[in-house]
Each structure stands twice: as C-alpha cells, then as structure tokens.
Amino acid sequence: MFGRRKRLLNRVLIVEDEPLIAFDTEHFLSDEGFEIHATVDLVAAAIAALDGGDPIDLVLVDVQLADGSGIEVAEAAHARGVATLFVTGNCPGEAKHVAAGCLAKPYAQRDLLGAIQAIEDALERRKPRRSPSGFTLFLEPAEVGKAGR
Questions:
Q1: Cβ of 106: how many Cβ atoms within 10 Å?
Q2: Per residue in 20-61, pLDDT tens?
Q3: What was the pLDDT predicted at 141?
Q4: Which range of residues forms the domain containing residue 87?
Q5: Is 87 a member of any domain?
Q6: Among 82, 96, 112, 148, which residue has the fewest nearby CB atoms (within 10 Å)?
Q7: Triad 129, 118, 29: Cα angle to 5°
C-alpha cells in the first residue's frame, strides 16, 4: 500500500575505466535496488551493450575512456532513446544535447542517487526535489519527457 513507487530508470549501463570507481558504483547501485545491465570500460563495449537488444534505462558514462570519448557513448544512447548521465571530472558542456545531466567527480554516493532521481523527476515532468552537489541537469523544459522514453 505504501511501498516505493516503481523507478523509471532501473536498468543501468555503467561505462567507467577506473576499476575501483566502476566496482563501487556497480555494488552501490545494486544494493540500492538498481539492475546493472553491464559494467564496461570501453566505448566499443558500451555501444555493443546498447545494441544488444536488452533494455537499458540509463547510461552512467565517464567522458575520458581508453578507446575514445564517453560523448560517443552518449550520442549512441541518445539515438536509441536512452538517458545518459555523465560522471566525470570535466563536464562536457558541448554535449548537453545528448545527455540528461552531469555529475562531477568526485561525488558522494547520495549525490549519485540524487542525480538519478532528479533525471527521473525531469523525465516525468516533475520539478526535481533537490539538486545534488556537483550535479547539472541538462534537460530543458521542452525536452522533458522525450529523453529516456
């Protein structure tokens, strides 16, 4: 009766080439009830996961990866209607059109949850409750409801 409402962004693809950050993020989000589709460290592997046919709701992607830019991953996700959150030390303002937002590293785990919740709120046309430290929401009012669905 008073259970948690179903998440809009539940199935997550993590694209991170720092092993400790990837491991921590995967386990933290799993413990929070998210379904981790995959954790990969290359652009090519991320695009292959997006093309794999299994549903993905959200891509968490670092910008600087060993075989290219996370912006390429965000472009591929955007083309498939999948929301993207950049998690990086240097948020790419030039890529606002292909991502829902950016969370600056280093970040607290509660800020990651807050960023995901803010994106969900925006996608559901609700005003985000709060903006976590280091988070920038890229979705414009005209785009709310388009990305990720």
A1: 10
A2: 999 999 999 999 999 999 999 999 999 999 999 899 999 999
A3: 46
A4: 11-107+125-137
A5: yes
A6: 96
A7: 120
Entry pTM: 0.89
The two beta strands, 135-137 and 11-15, are unpaired
Q: Is 22:41 a contact under the CB 8 Å cutoff?
A: yes
Whether 86 is covered by a domain: the verdict is yes
**Collapsing DSSP states into helix, strand and coil, what is residue 131?**
coil
Helices (H), ranges, the chain: 19-31, 43-51, 70-79, 109-123
Split into its structural domains, the chain has a count of: 1
Q: Is residue 97 part of a domain?
A: yes
**Inter-residue long-range contacts of 41-46, CB under 8 Å, 24+ positions, other chains counted:** 41/15, 41/16, 41/17, 41/65, 41/66, 42/17, 42/66, 42/67, 42/68, 43/15, 43/67, 43/68, 43/69, 43/70, 43/72, 43/73, 44/68, 45/15, 46/13, 46/15, 46/73, 46/76
CA pair distance 102, 62, nearest whole angstrom? 10
pLDDT tens digits, residue range 78-113?
999 999 999 998 888 889 999 999 999 999 999 999
